[in-house]
Amino acid sequence: MPTLIHPHFIAHYRRYFALLFIILMILTPTFPKVAPGEHLTQIQIKDFITAQTRNTPTTYYEGRLGPTGFEYELMHLFAEYLGVSLNMNAKHNPESVLSAVREQGDLGAAALPLLPATSGVHYTRPIIQMQPLVVYRRGLYGIQKPGDLVGLELGTLSEAGTSEALRELQRDYAALSWKESSELEVAELLAQVENGMLDAAVIFDHQFRLNRLFFPNVERGFLLGDPLSMVWAVPSGRGLGLLEAANQFLQDLEESGSLNHLINRYFGHDDYLEYVGTRTFLAHLDARLPSFIDLFQQAASETGFDWKLLAAVGYQESHWDAEAVSPTGVRGLMMLTHPTASEMGVDNRRDAAQSIDGGARYLRSLKNRLPESITGNDRLYMAMAAYNVGLGHLYDARKIAEMRGGDPNLWRDVREALPLLQHEEWHSQTRHGYARGGEPVIYVRNIRRYYEMIEYVERSRQQFFQLEQAGNDSMSMLPFELVPPLSQ
């Protein structure tokens, strides 16, 4: 005989399960359905992608040829891959980049390290490896191993990834301590080591190679910990279309060899002006310069410069090598960019006559375009600086010089201001942003040095020639190894 359930009992349990269902519906989070390609589709509709980045040498800055930087070039290629234009937002540090990606999108590209458990973002496949490196102030000895860092004034950048290596090290050396900053960039950190505010710092190896020439009192120490992976970041929760597209793009770039080519172009060498020893310069003076003296003298007569000054510029640019080509595409004896060559009517940059003539006229045009308030040698030195870094950055440095209470018409004050274009505190207040501001300072200094050496050798040879003409056959030509003091 079947068991009968009382109707009131059934009604009671119906109410119970209905209440339970309502509670579960309240407590269970609901997620809107996101199409896999929703974010990517939005980018394609608006026809541009916004990159959240930093104004640094390894990411993005305005260089001699216009916008440049390792990650800028990658982002530009990725935008072309998507068929959209590129919009840059470079007012960030590593920490604020991720916040901007979460809140605004579209892509974070700022030497970001692949770190675990980062909420609100997805990371792409690795792009390059970044090796932490200890650097220290010249004169501090015995910094050869991790334990030597204990007790030092040590600094690094927060959220850049280098602090992870220090935290790992702290497990073995509990007394290890360091300072972190989210406001500084690498050049500013190195400056603190240079001036004694810090004893040492941890940055990435490729960053030191790009900056070392400007900080002669900072020594390379030792590699610290394991390398980290540089990645891009995209916001999570908006579909995986953009992430998948970025990963496919990076994979294709790697398989084609183009990524490795770009890495070598930026980090496979020290992308800064080389200091050339006196013996090397004198060897080139005898072996190379005679072939170009007539061309320098002709260009000088047409532009009003001393031919020896133009020769010094040519040596600084290419070591008097008419076939020279830089990794950034400038070429020829005077290393003209393609736009500059076009502006000067030079159709073959490797033709020495065209290159010297075009370079001399370009230097003259820069000098003519400077404000009339800049006079004398100050005008010449600023024109040479603009030849290297561009008029826009030179004007930014003049503005900084004035902000610091200096005279924007004096090279000595502008020379002090130019390196500040490497510091976010200053370049954020300028029109053209970050620049390798230390480079034009070294550039002008080297040209002045080479000019003095050419003049010294020419004057000495003329003196010897006059003695020989007077019948002093016993006087022979001597090698000139003495370097004149560098005037500041």
From TrEMBL:
Region feature (LT domain): 271-488
Main localization category: membrane
Record keywords: Cell outer membrane, Cell wall biogenesis/degradation, Lyase, Membrane, Signal
Domain Solute-binding protein family 3/N-terminal: 49-270
Cell compartments where the protein resides: Cell outer membrane
Highest taxon of the lineage: Bacteria
Family annotation (SUPFAM superfamilies): Lysozyme-like, Periplasmic binding protein-like II
Xref: SMART domains: PBPb (SM00062)
One example of a Gene Ontology biological process annotation: peptidoglycan metabolic process
Membrane topology: Peripheral membrane protein
Catalytic activity: Exolytic cleavage of the (1->4)-beta-glycosidic linkage between N-acetylmuramic acid (MurNAc) and N-acetylglucosamine (GlcNAc) residues in peptidoglycan, from either the reducing or the non-reducing ends of the peptidoglycan chains, with concomitant formation of a 1,6-anhydrobond in the MurNAc residue
A single cellular component GO annotation: cell outer membrane
Database matches in Gene3D superfamilies: 1.10.530.10, Periplasmic binding protein-like II
EC number(s) on file: 4.2.2.n1
PANTHER family listed in its UniProt record: MEMBRANE-BOUND LYTIC MUREIN TRANSGLYCOSYLASE F (PTHR35936)
Protein name as annotated: Membrane-bound lytic murein transglycosylase F
Gene: mltF
